[in-house]
C-alpha cells in the first residue's frame, strides 16, 4: 500500500476564448479508500495485475469535510426546487452515498475474461453537467475512479454548462481538487447545452480516445477494457456499453432484462429494440452487437475518427438528436456501431427532462438537421411523422457543411440512406403512399398492440417496436393495410371469432364492397387521460363503414377469448363511448400527407 501526504492544493487557471479551465494540481499521487460514505478504490499503473491504493487518514478526513460543506450548501435550497430541476428522488440519492457497491451485471462468461491492457490507449472521459445534484455527479466521478485502471484513464473532464447553484461552485472545486489530479473542471461562461458542452470537452481532451458520459451514470466493473479492446480491432467504429437502469425514484441499480440494441422511428426518436431472433441466434452472450443507432448517454470513439465524421453538429441546441446524427454518420462514413455486453454502465432514466427552456420544438429542429443532411429522399417520412417546416435562410446556410460531409462520405463509401435501410436498419417499415396513420396500433386500455399471428389471426400482444407483425397503415382512401395485405371483416373459416388478413394485392381493394376504415377521434376526456408515454398522435375508435351496416355496430374492439388463458383477439362490436377497449392509437400520424406524396 502506498501512502502519500496531502500537500497544498492550488488550481492552475488557463484562459481560452469564451471559457475558463481549472486544472487542479496536487501532490497526492492517487486516491484510495475513503471509509463510510466514501469507499473508493483506484487502480494503480500495474498493467497485468492492477493494485489498489488507499488514502491516508488526513486525506479521508479532508474529503469528508469538503463533502459536508457541499451538502450543507445544497440543503439551503428548497427541496422541491432540487426535485423539480433534477427529476429524481433527492433524498434517496443522498442516502445512497457517492461511492457504493453495485451489482456486477455482466454476463457470466464476461467475468472470466482477462484483459491485457498494456497496449490499450488512454481515454478522456467527458462529462457535461448543468445544475446536477451533488451526490449524482460525484457518484458518477467516483465510479470512474474506482473502476478504471489508472494506466488507461488520462483524465475526467467535467464541463460545467453555466450551473447556477452555489454548491457547484467553490465547494465542488475544493472537493474534486482533493479527490484526484486527473479531474479537470471546465467552466462555460454561458449556457451552451449538452451538445456544445460535449464539443468543448472534446477540444480540451488530450487522450486519443473519447468517452462521452452523462453526469447521472455509474460505470460498472471492468467497464472500459472491453470497449477499448473492441476499438483496437477497428478504429472506425463507435463503441457503446450495454446500458443498465438506475431507478430515478429508488436509485436502485439493475440490469436490463434482455439484450437490446438501438433503432429509430420515422420521427427519429431513439427506440430500444430487443435484439432480433435471427441476429441473437448468431451471438454468444458476450458477443458485440451491431446496432443501427446508439443511445446518447455513453459512447466511446477514437478522437481522430470523431472529427473525421463531423463530431457533433455545433448548430444543434441544448439536447437531443446528436445520438441519431452520429449513428447515421458512423454507418454511412465508417463501420458502424457496436454494443459490448461485457461493458456495463448504469444510467438514471428520469421521468421527464430537467432542461430549462427546453421544448420539443428544439428537439424537432435538431432532428430536422439530421434528416436534411443524411436521409436523402427518405426525409419525407420524417416530415410525415412530425411536420413539414420551411427551412429559413440561416438554417439552410449552416446545413450546407453537414450536407457536404454527407456527400463526401457517399463518394468515398458508396453508401446512402437507402443502403442504410437495406443493410443495417432492415426492419424499419416504409409506410405506403397515401398513409394517414401508420406504425404500431396500441390499445389505450390494455397498452397492448394489434398483432397478426403466424396463422393470420388478429390478436393483441405486448408492444415490441418494429416487430413486423405489428406494423399497419391507414391510408386516405380508408384501407387498413398490413404489409401487402388488407384487413376486412371476413372471419377466418377455422375460427369462431375474430378478423383475419385477406391475401390479396392492395390495388385490388374495393372500398365500396369491403368498406372504409377511419379513426374517429371524437373521444371523451377520460380516454385522453389514459394516454401514456411521449406519443402525441390522435386517439380514437377504428370504425369500419360497410354498405348496409350501421356505423355504430362496427368498432374495432379488443376482446378476451378465454378468461382462463387470457387469450386476446379483436373483432367488430357495437360502438360504445365508455368501452375503453375500443380506443386505439397509431404510433405515427402523418402531417400533410397529400402535399408530400403528390
From TrEMBL:
<keyword id="KW-0472">Membrane</keyword>
<dbReference type="Pfam" id="PF00535">
    <property type="entry name" value="Glycos_transf_2"/>
</dbReference>
<dbReference type="InterPro" id="IPR001173">
    <property type="entry name" value="Glyco_trans_2-like"/>
</dbReference>
<feature type="domain" description="Glycosyltransferase 2-like">
    <location>
        <begin position="124"/>
        <end position="290"/>
    </location>
</feature>
<keyword id="KW-1015">Disulfide bond</keyword>
<keyword id="KW-0812">Transmembrane</keyword>
<dbReference type="GO" id="GO:0006493">
    <property type="term" value="P:protein O-linked glycosylation"/>
</dbReference>
<dbReference type="InterPro" id="IPR029044">
    <property type="entry name" value="Nucleotide-diphossugar_trans"/>
</dbReference>
<keyword id="KW-1133">Transmembrane helix</keyword>
<feature type="transmembrane region" description="Helical">
    <location>
        <begin position="12"/>
        <end position="34"/>
    </location>
</feature>
<protein>
    <submittedName>
        <fullName>Polypeptide N-acetylgalactosaminyltransferase 13 isoform X3</fullName>
    </submittedName>
</protein>
<dbReference type="GO" id="GO:0005794">
    <property type="term" value="C:Golgi apparatus"/>
</dbReference>
<dbReference type="GO" id="GO:0004653">
    <property type="term" value="F:polypeptide N-acetylgalactosaminyltransferase activity"/>
</dbReference>
